[in-house]
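A reminder from the course coordinator: this example appears on the midterm review sheet, so study it carefully.

Given structure:
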């Protein structure tokens, strides 16, 4: 009997030990999975209703795991390693959401490394206004220029308004501590610093001291696009950002039916609306920045005097007056931007870009500002292609004007150049065109296409044999009271008509001594 009892006890002990190891391993695995951000977890998509469905496995690049244990009601959204103080060790910022929170707000947790014990400990937690985990950015930035690293948390709330929460470190003898010095939401938010010296499309230049501009709806039912700009400045006495001024930003007179047809609440329909080429306004004396949206290929391209880049276009989230989306540089995957696109009027939008990693890649592209749709880019003008009689005056379109100007061919004949080395020589019936190491010669008949003017170069080789065509939409830009610049927008002539190519416009100025443009 004793022998049987010993066997039973031994089996019970072994069974209990196996159960203990099983549950310990299960708990350890759960902790490891919880320490992995949602953005880096594996997603399996396999619709069971379709037998021919193929299992798709989407796996993003691994991200850092949480170096501290999460609380029972926290779910980890992201983990970011960065240095926030003067020591050499990296701190870790955890982006978490509390299940027990009534607002569903996203919080950040700071884990600091203690060399004395060789481990990380949770030292501080702060709550932001953002609730959407798809678009949330933490920017470490010396906002006031005092040497401390502030934390700027950008995101979206439940109303799809952009939010910004700023945490400033405090000198605390007991450990790490932060104070919330700004918290607000609006249609779009812009942090303006001393480096932002460029005037944007709204007609104001950022000052030397840091400001936070919040663009909010004016609440005008008759004109839903009317906005008000709330300006917050640093209040030294209260050690926080306080409201400094507010100014109305009236919108254009746009029919309500037009606004409702564009702002339908579906991001894919707004993406279709902004498809095409847009030109930045409010940059006198400079080559305007051009932005091209291609929803079909999920690309956003920017062309300026210093930047020519193509960005991968991520999923969009609808906002009050447009969309928010994340874009990633196709050549540098770590270069992330949160791009806000707001409708301002008929064929007019505003772009606001926020960097995803300000420490590594601050914004150098000229995104921010007001843009107008380039005429004829999205919709071909009506009418057929007709050759223009060059023996008489030609009606040239003039940029930023609804009326053209009649000029003889002889009045524009001469030598022209662009700042980047393109050269153009026009005579009565022939041209010479140089683009880098390539040179072209041939005739250049003009065609009218609706209300636009098309310049078609028939390229010929040295044996006078036609070897191609180079077509442009041509317009004039007034240089002064007596002279013009020739603007050539690359185009393509096909059986369907004439369409713009996505290439930067060429702006030619008359060479010194050339009187043809006068």
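Designed residues:
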């Amino acid at each position: 009997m004793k022998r049987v009892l010993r066997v039973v006890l031994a089996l019970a002990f072994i069974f209990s030990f196996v159960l203990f190891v099983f549950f310990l391993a299960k708990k350890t695995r759960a902790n490891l999975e919880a320490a992995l951000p949602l953005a880096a977890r594996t997603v399996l998509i396999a619709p069971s209703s379709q037998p021919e469905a193929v299992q798709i496995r989407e796996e993003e690049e691994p991200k850092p795991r949480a170096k501290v244990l999460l609380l029972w009601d926290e779910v980890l959204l992201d983990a970011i390693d960065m240095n926030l103080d003067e020591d050499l060790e990296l701190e870790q910022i955890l982006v978490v959401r509390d299940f027990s929170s009534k607002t569903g707000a996203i919080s950040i947790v700071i884990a600091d490394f203690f060399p004395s014990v060789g481990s990380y400990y949770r030292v501080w937690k702060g709550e932001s206004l953002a609730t959407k985990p798809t678009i949330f950015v933490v920017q470490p930035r010396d906002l006031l220029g005092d040497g401390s690293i502030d934390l700027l948390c950008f995101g979206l709330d439940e109303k799809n308004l952009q939010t910004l929460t700023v945490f400033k470190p405090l000198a605390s003898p007991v450990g790490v501590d932060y104070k919330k010095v700004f918290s607000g939401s609006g249609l779009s938010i812009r942090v303006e610093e001393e480096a932002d010296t460029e005037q944007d499309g709204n007609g104001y230049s950022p000052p030397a001291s840091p400001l936070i501009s919040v663009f909010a709806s004016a609440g005008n039912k008759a004109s839903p696009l009317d906005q008000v700009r709330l300006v917050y400045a640093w209040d030294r006495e209260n050690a926080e950002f306080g409201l400094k001024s507010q100014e109305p930003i009236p919108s254009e007179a746009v029919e309500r039916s037009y606004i409702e047809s564009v702002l339908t609440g579906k991001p894919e329909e707004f993406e279709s609306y902004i498809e095409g080429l847009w030109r930045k306004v409010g940059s006198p004396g400079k080559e305007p920045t051009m932005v091209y949206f291609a929803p079909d290929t999920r690309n956003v391209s920017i062309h300026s005097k210093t930047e020519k880049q193509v960005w991968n276009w991520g999923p969009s989230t609808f906002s009050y007056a447009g969309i928010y989306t994340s874009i990633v540089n196709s050549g540098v995957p770590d270069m992330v931007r949160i791009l806000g696109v707001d409708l301002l009027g008929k064929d007019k939008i505003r772009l606001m870009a926020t960097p995803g990693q300000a420490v590594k890649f601050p914004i150098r592209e000229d995104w921010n500002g007001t843009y107008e749709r380039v005429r004829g880019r999205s919709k071909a003008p009506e009418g057929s292609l007709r050759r223009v009689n060059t023996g008489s005056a030609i009606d040239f379109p003039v940029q930023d004007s609804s009326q053209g100007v009649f000029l003889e061919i002889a009045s524009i004949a001469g030598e022209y150049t662009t700042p980047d080395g393109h050269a153009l020589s026009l005579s009565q019936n022939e041209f010479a065109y140089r683009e880098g190491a390539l040179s072209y010669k041939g005739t250049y008949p003009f065609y009218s296409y609706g209300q636009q003017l098309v310049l078609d170069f028939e390229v010929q080789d040295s044996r006078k044999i036609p070897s191609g065509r180079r077509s442009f939409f041509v317009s004039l830009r007034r240089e002064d009271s007596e002279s013009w610049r020739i603007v050539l927008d690359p185009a393509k002539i096909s059986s369907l008509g004439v369409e713009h190519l996505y290439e930067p416009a060429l702006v030619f100025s008359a060479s010194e001594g050339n009187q043809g443009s006068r």
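The chain has a mean pLDDT of 77. The chain is about 10% helix and 45% strand.
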